[in-house]
Amino acid sequence: MDFNDSPEEAEYRATARAWLEKNTAEHKAEAHADDMAAGKAWQRRKAEAGYAQITWPKEWGGAGGTPIQSVIFGQEEAKFPVNYGYFTIGLGMCVPTVMAFADDETKKRFVGPALRGEEIWSQLFSEPAGGSDVAAIRTKAVRNGDDWVINGQKVWTSGAHYSDYGIVLVRTNPDVPKHKGLTMFWLDLKSPGVEIRPIHQMSGGSNFNEVYFTDVRIPDAQRLGAVDDGWKVALVTLMNERLAVGGSRGVGPEEILSLARDMDAADGPLLKDSAFRQRLADWYVQSQGLSNTRMRTMTALSRGQTPGPESSIGKIIAANQMQELGNAAVEAGDQYGIIADPKLAALKGLFQGAVMNAPGLRIAGGTDEILKNIIAERVLGMPGEIRTDKDAAFKDLATGR
Amino acid sequence: MNFDYSDDQKMLKDEARKFLAAKCDAKVVRSVLDNADRAYDEGLWKGVAEQGWLGVAIPEEFGGLGLGHVELCGLAEELGRACAPIPFASTVYFVAEALMKFGSAEQKAKWLPKIAAGEVIGAFATSEGKGPVTARSIGTSVSAGKLSGEKIPVTDGDVADLIVVLAKDGLYLVEKGEGVSAEVLETLDPTRSVAKLTFSNAPAAKLGSEDGIAAMQAVFDRAAVLLAFEQVGGADKSLEMAKAYAFERQAFGRAIAGYQAIKHKLADMYVKNEIARSNAYYGAWALNTDAGELPLAAATARVAASEAFWFASKENIQTHGGIGFTWEADPQLYYRRSRQLSLVAGAPATWRERLVSQLEMKNAA
């Protein structure tokens, strides 16, 4: 048991770090119109050096590297203030799907610009009637000459308001069971009939969108995979989700420890309150447990193995801890805890923000309940849920009517 | 990055699992549970000694295999899975560790080879009554090389040949015999033997020069990591038992394994077990390298593993339903053992407090 890089890994890390030191300094010295422009500039820099998608083949602008190299670069990059999230979904999920299913001409047209941050992609799967049940898609596509005509609505589309292109999963056949009548396309989000409306979250922010389709025409040439075979294509997209080995940020034991030092409880500082200390210990144990679990994932990658199921538990713990720890900090303020004004609240309202954002984190990217099903079924090998919709035509389901 | 057992360590662990499957099935555990006269299973103890497990982390110069603590952690995990009814923890995690940490050259040469050979059973005697052990709670004292006081409870105290005793001014080695009497106690886990020990002017040799509580804590830190591996093994076994029963048991026309209430319960167990395993690995690293982080790593491992084993062992009974509450069903063995392991080196609440104290020191530094 040790935490040391192998000699090759250590060398890779040193090279990456030297590159990051030089290039982040140059990047920060440049003038950028806004955060998006800065993000695009940084992405271009990485692409030119082969750090944009390290595991992609060189012919597509990657470095032909290993997953552990990608993780090492990510760890080093996270130490610098260049955390731009605009390209994650496109490069992590959408473009790999395009690369797997599109013709050469399409790939040549889109892969490079996406890699260099010139064009941004969105993933349009979720719908009002299908969140956890993604295959219950109602947005329909009807063939019309060389085109398909799309009508319907997508929801929870991250970044659609600043994206150029997207991949969209639609229903092309309602007369067969739900998984068997879906088809995947790529499309220009500026197409006529596409309307993007930001969703106003309960936390006040707007990170997601509704996307409405009204008689949107998509050429058949933009189809990814066979007609009615879109579920298989979607599984490729979802498989490409980035390995959950990144560090956690935001609200954790360290933040609440610093709060507890300064905050008074009934009999002295909160940090001396024994009930609080017991809870703090449990939060630390969980955070440390997640961080140590990431080390095990890294070990599997380092040995050239596919990480085991241990990497799937992260979000369940992190999201619930954010909610409970945030709330404990809020309640520690007693009456004052209700104040969310960053000018007045502890740590600029960090904990109040955690309380309001945690409900979303427990739902996004797989609800707690779906993740527990996944652990039970895929890790422990327990039976899948009974599906009354498995063999019925989509149009005959309550969702499909 | 190498945050896992090595191939050699895995092989040792696999062999241990096979050995214990053959020599320590539930019948062996029950033979101790059901027989108040038996303190431990002598056949298994002898077999474990022959395998060399008692000396796996003891240096070769003192008769051990001189492998290391990660190997010992792997064995602990397997012993926990098997719910082994032997004085392994008392002898190896507490007494051998105390000797290796604080013993003089003579003390090590005298005792470690005997421990490695299975000729000596050890016990670690700290508590004198209800509540956590503190400087104020210790009445045991030594005068002119004679130790007097009362220790309760002492795991394996009735069968120990060598007892490491916490007195006011430090740790002492006391041999069974003159001035030592034992009274066996009824506990939550009869598969492990526990006694009250009374010392009246028992010959005692000082072990190390450390202050008493600090020395005890140093031994607890080491034992906590090893106990955490036993707890992880027991927690994993409890999850496997629950899963196997859920597939077997039919209710309302199908196996209960298909019900989401059962699936999510088992997923919750899995999450806690993985967190416990990851934290135990960190503890193993700290123990094996004698890292400065050991106190914090040990506390983290112990709190996580105590929680995981408690949860898995109680929800294993729940998954079994009524049959799980019978004497004949095996989930109770792990439920009982989870209590024993959570308490033997101090309760989780005590360790949570220690964990936060360590965090305060770390952040102040």
From TrEMBL, chain A:
Q: What InterPro entries does this protein's entry cite? A: Acyl-CoA_Oxase/DH_mid-dom, Acyl-CoA_Oxase/DH_mid-dom_sf, AcylCo_DH-like_C, AcylCo_DH/oxidase_C, AcylCoA_DH/ox_N, AcylCoA_DH/ox_N_sf, AcylCoA_DH/oxidase_NM_dom_sf, Mycobact_Acyl-CoA_DH
Under the cellular component aspect of Gene Ontology, which terms does the record hold?
Answer: plasma membrane
Question: Gene name on record?
Answer: acdA_9
From what organism does this protein derive?
Answer: Sphingomonas jeddahensis
| Protein name listed in UniProt | Acyl-CoA dehydrogenase
The Acyl-CoA dehydrogenase/oxidase N-terminal domain, residue ranges: 6-118
Acyl-CoA oxidase/dehydrogenase middle domain boundaries: 125-216
Q: Which family does it belong to?
A: Belongs to the acyl-CoA dehydrogenase family.
Acyl-CoA dehydrogenase/oxidase C-terminal domain residues are 228-380
TrEMBL record, chain B:
Q: Where does the record place the Acyl-CoA dehydrogenase/oxidase N-terminal domain?
A: 6-119
* EC primary class: oxidoreductase
Q: Which domain of life is it from?
A: Bacteria
Task: Look up keyword Cell membrane and say if it applies.
Answer: no
The protein's Enzyme Commission number: 1.3.99.-
InterPro entries given for it?
Acyl-CoA_Oxase/DH_mid-dom_sf (IPR046373), AcylCo_DH-like_C (IPR036250), AcylCo_DH/oxidase_C (IPR009075), AcylCoA_DH/ox_N (IPR013786), AcylCoA_DH/ox_N_sf (IPR037069), AcylCoA_DH/oxidase_NM_dom_sf (IPR009100)
List residues of the Acyl-CoA dehydrogenase/oxidase C-terminal domain.
211-352
Q: Which UniProt keywords apply?
A: FAD, Flavoprotein, Oxidoreductase
Q: Which cofactor is recorded for it? A: FAD
Indicate yes or no for the key word Signal: no
One example of the protein's molecular function in GO is: flavin adenine dinucleotide binding
Q: Which Pfam families match?
A: Acyl-CoA_dh_1, Acyl-CoA_dh_N
Task: State the PANTHER family in the record.
Answer: ACYL-COA DEHYDROGENASE, ACYL-COA DEHYDROGENASE FADE28
Similarity section: Belongs to the acyl-CoA dehydrogenase family.
Task: List the protein's name.
Answer: Acyl-CoA dehydrogenase
Q: Which organism is it from?
A: Sphingomonas jeddahensis
